[in-house]
Every structure is written in C-alpha cells, then in structure tokens.
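If it is no trouble, can you show me the amino acids of a protein and the tokens describing how it folds?
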Amino acid sequence: MVLDVRIGDVLRMRRKHPCGSVDWDVVRVGADIGIVCRGCQRRVLMRRDVLRRRVRAFLERGAPVDPEVWRALEGDGPAAPRGDEGPLEARDSDESMTEAEGAPGER
C-alpha cells in the first residue's frame, strides 16, 4: 500500500529526533519524501517505504491534490490543454506541410 503523503502534512514519528522533537513537516513529495524537523529545522530526505514504517500519526493534512491532476497522471484526462487547433492528427496532416519540408516518403 502506498502512503498518501502531501506537501504541508505534519507527521509524528515513532522516535525522537536528537533535538527532542517528534513532529515533522512534509516539504517535498516524490520518490523520496522531504521532511523538516519542527524543533531544529533540520531537513531530511527519506524513502517512502522507510517513512511509512517510521510514521506514528498524521497530525495535520496538507491540501489535497487537484482531481484534474490525478486524471492526467492516471491517463483518464487530457495530457495537455486542448487549443483551438483540434487534435494532434489534424495539426500534423500533409496539407499543413510546406514544399520545403516535403511530404513523408518523397525523399
């Protein structure tokens, strides 16, 4: 199971940091999760699987990801905003090519 971590989350870890704090802010989300100690402002990068084992609780949740972003990442939505030109096939048709470029297969 993937740990749902968002930028802005506040995590409580199982063990204390050497400064004595157990609370951390999430500042980076990716393959590695960037967290900042709330006691001494120390920054740490931690792999997702390691973070999942070390987290005791979520104290605060960050803003949720926009549903449009999820759809684009999952492949259900458009990869890029659609313009007035229409689909990519219409823009790359043979009629739009100039004489200098030549049509495909004429070389």
Remarks:
- Residues 1-77 form one domain.
- The mean pLDDT is 79.
